[in-house]
Structure formats: structure tokens, C-alpha cells
Amino acid sequence: MKYLNAALILPKDLVEELQKYIQGSYLYIPAQKDQHKKWGELSGFRTELKQRNLKIRQEFSSGTSMEDLAESYFLSIHAIKKILYRK
Q1: Stretch 57-78: mean pLDDT, rounded?
Q2: Which of 2, 31, 58, 77 could, after both became Cys, cross-link 35 (CB 3.0–4.6 A)?
């Protein structure tokens, strides 16, 4: 999240109205529900994890052991099991 100077992006009247309630502090304005993004959607990391997990499942199906997968992907055996057995 980055901080923006309200005086640079909001109308002067709105800034003055906000100053009646808060001055010199940070104000968080949440996104509207229909605009909210899930974790990792903006950065693309969610997609990367899906692709990695698919590859792990494919390698396991091809005979790679859980131990080898854990070592290759720098994950614990427990994390590998969660990826493999998640529905």
C-alpha cells in the first residue's frame, strides 16, 4: 500500500472536510467490495503458486518422492503433503 497526499489528488473542499475529522495522520480508505482483489492477484504470485503446485503434483504422479519434491522446492514434507492432498 502506498501513501498519497490527499491535497494532491482530492478536491480542496473534500480535503477541508476531512481535516475537520483528522489532520496530519494516515487515513485508510478500503476498496469497495466489488473492487477488492484476493491475495496475490495484483502481483501475479497467486498464479505462480498454482503453476508450481500443479508441477509438484505432476512430478509426484511421475514417481518423484515427497522427500525429493520437498528438497527441490525448498518446502517441508508437510507442505508437500498439503499441496498433493488438497482437493
Answers
A1: 97
A2: 31
